[in-house]
Amino acid sequence: MDWRGTLTTQQLTTLTSELVAYQDQLAAIHELAHHFSGRLNLLQALQGLVQTAVRALFVRRGAALLSLPERPSLTAASSVGAESEHMLASALAQVQQQQAPVLQNGNGRFPSPGDGDRLLLPLTVRGQVMGVLQLVERCTGPFTTADIKLGQALTAQLEVQVENTLWHEAEVAQAAWRAQLAQAQEVQRCLLPQLVPHISGIDIWAASTPLHEVGGDWYDFIPAQRGAPMVAVGDVCGKGMAAAMLMAMTRTTLRNGDAYLPHSSPARLIQHANTTLHSDYTGVGLFASLFVGHYLPDEGVVRYANAGHAPVIFCPARGDARLLPASNAAIGLLPNEPIMEASLPFGPGDALVVATDGFTEATNARGELLGYERLLEAVSRTAGQNAASIGAVLQAVVANFRGQQPPSDDQTLFVLKGVSSWARD
Amino acid sequence: MEWYTTTVDGIEVLTINGRFDAHSAPALKRWLLKAAAAEGSQVVVDLGGTHFIDSAALALLIAGLRQCRARGGEMILCNLAQPMRIILELTQMDQMFTIVPTMAAAVTALRSATAEVIA
Predict the structure, then answer these.
(1) For the whole model, what pTM was predicted?
(2) pLDDT tens per residue across span B61-110
(3) CB contact residues (below 8 A), chain A span 222-251, against chain B
(4) Residue A238: its chain B contacts at CB < 8 A?
């Protein structure tokens, strides 16, 4: 400065050049941001970063490598052959080890100015260094701290772009998955009976609610060779997709068993299902409980077979509800099991309730289970009502018991109430 | 749920307390299938502190049991509380397992099984 406090021509020229350089660098940052605001794939974004960084930091060559998990690595370079994959991999290893930019200046040790200048900048995604930007051969003098800061401003923009791309991809994948689940839910809904058949002498009510979009519970009405349709309730162990796949298979096998048997009966149906499905169930290490009943009005009985299913509750017209135990283990466990059958006298005023363990295993906030006793008591209390009312009361009992606690399993409820043939209560 | 394992005279003992829910313990599943895969392994599952087993947990025990027996070993359940025994009987699931009242009875049963094999 001269004695008047103003700048010399030399100083002014230098200051102007520096200001122009800073303005160029700001423009580079802005340009990169603008470039990223368009819809880019990751490779285009990486290329944009390299081109901008090479210009903004006055280097002869630049290249970048981005290596995200479970996808092929991406590389970009300022010119063809600007950097070998091997050198880039080595650069990535260096920044991963340092967890920071790595700077090497030639400091005039090389014949050409700029040779030996090398700046490595890490690309960090979700807290981990997954890429590197390499800039070599500085044209305008050694790299400085300011250059590192500018480089970091540029790489930060790419990191945001990568993050946004990953989130977008995850959302698209989730939307596709939800669409699949919705379709599976519709398939399973169609596999459940659309109508309750009218059977003279009994009043029927049934409902099935999976825990997730699909589940392993179901009920069915299976046309029988004589008399009323048979009723079936099944529960594949577990829940969700896996249980639903087995549910579909088991429901159809059970249903089709009757078509080919000369004298169909609940025991024969279950036996056929067990024989047919045993190796599949054993292969996946699962099983399914199954109840099949057949109302025979001429005999005044429900013939039934129960493979490992609970709760099955019978409440006579004058009496208390009691559990009907299974006579066989669940299907899929023991091959060639002879399935036992029983006859339950059943007439007007009698009630048969078949639920799945989503009811008895309902849990409240204190961690208590609903259990069998509470369910038996509720059935005894309401057995005088019609099937729909019994069903509604039992559903309410479970919902009230659970309170704010969410359900933890699929829930299916099937109610048979004996009525006089000429009247419905 | 909490669970832990000990070894008593070459017998692997798995103790499960609380609510036995197969999905909440993948590590338990890994341990059980690995223990069962060993040649001639003897496993006791102590359910004294368990108040609830869901069907997926039962399926896991059955898988472990089958694996044990396939390798010439055995798996025994012990210390079941009365409510749990009742449910297993109600569903005929008790047919699938060897169930004894106490740990001592389990050890005796396993030892006599080994003695039979040797003799």
Answers:
(1) 0.80
(2) 999 999 999 999 999 999 999 989 999 999 999 999 999 999 999 999 98
(3) 235, 237-238
(4) 55-56, 59
Contact yes or no for A206/A197 (Cβ under 8 A):
no
Q: Cα separation of A176 and A160, whole Å?
A: 24
Q: What are the pLDDT digits (tens) for A213-255?
A: 888 999 999 988 777 899 999 999 988 888 899 999 999 999 9
Q: Are A216 and A238 in contact (CB under 8 A)?
A: yes
- Mean pLDDT taken over chain B: 89
A contacts of B37 (beta carbons < 8 Å): none
Rounded CA-CA distance B1/B50 in Å is 8
**Separation CA A177–CA A194 (nearest Å):** 27
Question: Is the CB of residue A187 less than 8 Å from the CB of residue A381?
Answer: no
Q: Do the Cβ atoms of B64 and B75 come closer than 8 Å? A: yes
Our CA-based measurement puts residue A292 at a distance from the nearest CA of chain B, in whole angstroms, of 15
Residue of A250, A348, A245 whose CA lies nearest to A291: A250
Query: Nearest-5° angle of CA A307, CA A310, CA A316?
Result: 105
Q: How many Cα neighbours within 13 Å face the side chain of A295?
A: 26
Residue B119 to residue B115: CA distance in whole angstroms: 6
Residues 6 or more apart whose Cβ sits within 8 Å of residue A46: A64, A66, A74, A75, A76, A131, A158
* Residues on chain B bordering chain A, Cβ-to-Cβ distance under 8 angstroms: 19, 52, 54-56, 58-60, 62-63, 66, 87, 89-93, 95-96
DSSP string, B4-48: EEEEETTEEEEEEEEEE-GGG-HHHHHHHHHHHHSTT-EEEEEEE
* Angstrom distance (rounded) from CA A250 to CA A385: 33
Q: Give the DSSP letter of residue A82.
A: S
Instruction: Give me the residues paired with residue B18 across strands.
Output: B50
Residues with Cβ < 8 Å from A166, sequence gap 6 or more? A68, A125, A126
Question: Which tokens sit at A31?
Answer: 């340009």
A101 close to B (CB below 8 A): no
Pairing between strand B42-53 and B11-20? parallel
Name residue A203's beta-bridge partners: A417
Contact A293, A303 (CB under 8 A): yes
B60 vs A contacts (CB less than 8 Å): 285
